[in-house]
Amino acid sequence: MRELVYYVAVTLDGFIAGPGGEFDAFLVEGDHMDGINARFADTIPTVAAEALGIEQRNDVFDTVLMGWNTYQVGGLPSPYRHLRQIVFSRAHTAEAENLEVTADDPVEVVRRLKQEDGGAIWLCGGGALAATLADEIDRLVLKRQPLLFGSGIPLFGERPYRPERFDAVETTAYESGVVFSEFERRREN
């Protein structure tokens, strides 16, 4: 079965963007970028990867999920055209290469996707969508940035208090101060 992986940059105080969706303070230069480019090349927007000469083989992810605000951030009609892109919105539509905008229930969509053949499913953002899909997330890959935002869009939007355990898989600290931490959901036997 395919995994849903929430792979996202997050501040030390738990925000994935500023109050207005700002993300330009996140570090995009430094030794951590080699880790992103080597292991998670599929998460680089297609245009940027082409400009940098980075090959995208879809060997980790072949599908990306995002809410409308996350989709709008880059201003590109098909930001990850090398992947199957599913954008959740009840109010908007868009047409572009490998892009599907749907008003369907995200949980039902993810459950269907998990039954299909293919690679992992990347939950790109945002926080409200992550909260909706929290029970479906199999793996977290957090790029903790050495930043405090003070306020903004939380890693997980509002959800009821219900502790859930994830086990640490791997942590890599970079001189830039960015720390990649990977966790997998603890499955009760």
Automatic annotation (TrEMBL):
Pfam families: RibD_C
Organism lineage string: Bacteria, Bacillati, Actinomycetota, Actinomycetes, Micrococcales
Protein's name in the database: Dihydrofolate reductase family protein
Source organism superkingdom: Bacteria
Domain Bacterial bifunctional deaminase-reductase C-terminal positions: 4-180
Signal peptide feature range: none
InterPro entries attached to this UniProt entry: DHFR-like_dom_sf (IPR024072), RibDG_C (IPR002734), Riboflavin_Biosynth_HTPR (IPR050765)
